[in-house]
Amino acid sequence: MTVSIVDYGLGNLGSVSNMLRRIGAEVRTVDTPEGVLESDRVLLPGIGAFDEGMRRLHDKDLVDPLREFAASGRPLFGICLGMQLLLDSSEEGEARGLGLIPGGSARFDDSSGIRVPHMGWSSADPTREDALVAGLPEDRRFYFVHSYRVIPDDAAAILATTDYGVEFASMVRSGSVMGAQFHPEKSHTFGMTIMRNFAQL
Amino acid sequence: MSHFPRVIPVLLVSDGYLVKPVKFRGDKYIGDPINAVRIFNEKQVDELVICDIDATTKGSGVNYTLLEEIASEAFMPVGYGGGVTDAEQARRITGIGIEKVILNTVAFDRPEAVREISSALGSSSTVVSVDAKRRFTGGWDAYVARGSRKTGLSPSEAAARAQQLGAGEVLVSSIDRESTFEGYDTRLISSVAEAVSVPVIALGGASAFADFAPALDAGASAVAAGSMFVLNGKHRAVLISYPSPADVRSLADR
After folding, report:
1. What is the C-alpha to C-alpha distance for residues B222 and A190, in angstroms, rounded to an integer?
2. Are residues A87 and A93 in contact, defined by beta-carbon separation less than 8 angstroms?
3. pLDDT (tens digit, 9 = 90+) per residue, B37-73?
4. Is the pLDDT of residue A49 over 90?
5. Residue A85 has what DSSP assignment?
6. Which domains does chain B have, with CATH numbers?
7. Cβ of A14 and B96 within 8 Å?
8. What is the pLDDT, as a whole number, of residue B24?
9. Rounded to 5 degrees, what are φ and ψ at B127?
C-alpha cells in the first residue's frame, strides 16, 4: 500500500500523511513529473483557490504527468480543491482544470439563506456500490469546508451526494479518477475507511 | 438537510501546558494538551480549537512543535489561535496539518493581515475571533489582546469588517461569561450572526448540553466550550467529556 501525495504547496500534507500512516500505508511525497509517473496511486490534496491550484501544478510541470498517470488507469484521488481540479473549470477562476472528468465547479447560492462556506459535518450518500465507499456505516459523517461544488456533465460520474440547501456531488468517480469534496483525513473513522479503501485499490 | 451543527471543545495552552483561565484571568494548570487531544480524538469530536494565550500577550510566538504533535493525533479539523501575525506563519501552521488559523489582536491592529492570510490560505481557513465584553450602557465592546484592550468597535461591526477582509468564519466569545457556566449570551450571538453571512461559532458560558440549542437558534453555526468539556463538578476537577455522537446529531433536528 504505497500512496504518493502530490506536494504543490496547497493542501494539508501533514494531515493526509498522518492518517495514511495510521492505516499502515507507505507514504511518499511527490513534486516532480517522474515522481508522479512512477507512483502506484496518487492523492491530490488541496485547500485554496482554483486558479492558484492550477498555477502551482503548472509551475511544477505536473499537469501533463497527472493526465498521463490518470490515462494509465492507476488510481488518482483528489480531495477538496484537489477534486475540483480534476474537472474542466470553475466559476472561481479562469484557469483550465485537469479535464479528467467533464464538468466544472459552481459557487453555492447563499441567497437562499444558507451560510457559505459550507463548513462542518454532513452525511454523504453513495449513489452506487463502489470499492471506494465500501464498509461505511449508516451514521457516517464527513468534514466539509468549501464554497464551490462540482457539477459533472455526466451524472454517472457522481459517486455520492450531500444535501446543503441543494443536493450536490460530494464524491465523484470515473474509472480510476475519483474525488471527495470533504476531507477524509479529518473525518475520524469514516474518513479512515475511505482512505483505506483508496490505499487498497 | 444532512448538515450537523458543530460542537467544539476549546483548549487553552500556556507555556505548552493546558490551562483553564476564568473570565480571561487566572490560569489554572490542568494537564498535557496532547493527552487531551488524544482523548477528544477518541471521542470523535467535531472539531477542536487550540488557543495559545501567551503567544501574543507574552510575545512567545507560535509553538510549532506543539502544533505538530497535536496535528498527528487529531483526525478532525483543528483551529489554532495565538500569535499569528502574517501569511508566512499561517501557511506554516496549515502545512503542519492544522486546518484553520484564528486571528484576534492582529485583525484589529493590522487589518490587512486578515486579507493576506485569507488570500494565502483561503477564506475558510481564516477565522477572526471577536471577544466581547458587555457595556454598562448596553450592548458590547469588541476587545483584543485577551480582553485587555478595546477596539472601539461593537462585536457586530468587528465581525462584519472581518468578513469583508476575507474571514470565512467568526468566533464570538463572551468575556463576561467565560467559565461562568451561565449559558451563552444569545443576544450577543444574534447580533453577530445577523451582521455576517459566514458561519459563527459561539463561545462562553456553556454548562450543559441543553445550552447548545439556544445558541444555535440565535444564529450560531457551531457551539464551542472550554470548561464544560474539561472540568467537572463544583471543585472543577479535570474530567474530559463530550456529548455522544447521537446527541450531537440530534442538534440538527431540534
Report:
1. 21
2. no
3. 999 999 999 999 999 988 877 777 899 999 999 998 9
4. no
5. T
6. 6-253 (3.20.20.70)
7. yes
8. 63
9. -115, 135
Give the per-residue pLDDT at B27.
65
Count of CB pairs separated by less than 8 Å, A with B: 113
pLDDT of residue A9: 85
pLDDT, tens only, B5-29: 999 999 999 888 898 766 666 567 7
Structural domain that includes position A147: 2-94+102-199
Q: Are B37 and B49 in contact (CB under 8 A)?
A: no
Query: Is the CB of A163 less than 8 angstroms away from the CB of B245?
Result: no
The most distant pair of C-alpha atoms in chain B lies apart, rounded to whole Å, by: 47
Q: What is the pTM of this model?
A: 0.90
> Which of B72, B119, B120 minimises the CB distance to A18?
B72
Residue for grid cell 460530494: A170
Domain count of chain A?
1
User: What band does A82 get if pLDDT is binned at 50, 70 and 90?
Assistant: very high
Crossing angle of helices B64-73 and B33-42, rounded to 10°: 20
What is the distance in angstroms between the Cα of B115 and the nearest Cα belonging to chain A? Answer: 14
Kindly name the residue from A80, A92, A118, A146 that is annotated as catalytic: A80
CA nearest neighbour of B206 among B171, B181, B233, B177? B181
Active site residue A185: yes
Q: What CATH number corresponds to the domain at position A188?
A: 3.40.50.880
Residue of B nearest to A187 (CA): B76
Tell me how far CA of residue B31 lies from CA of A160, B22, B57, B80, B228, in angstroms.
42, 16, 21, 18, 16
Q: Looking at A68, A167, A183, A188, which residue is catalytic?
A: A183
Nearest C-alpha in A relative to B196:
A115
DSSP B154: -
Q: Which of B3, B120, B249 sits opposite A164 (nearest CB)?
A: B3
pLDDT tens per residue across span A4-36: 999 998 777 888 998 999 999 999 999 999 999
Interface confidence (ipTM) of the complex: 0.85
**Per-residue H/E/C for A123-166:** CCEECCCCHHHCCCCCCCCEEEEECEEEEECCHHHEEEEEEECE
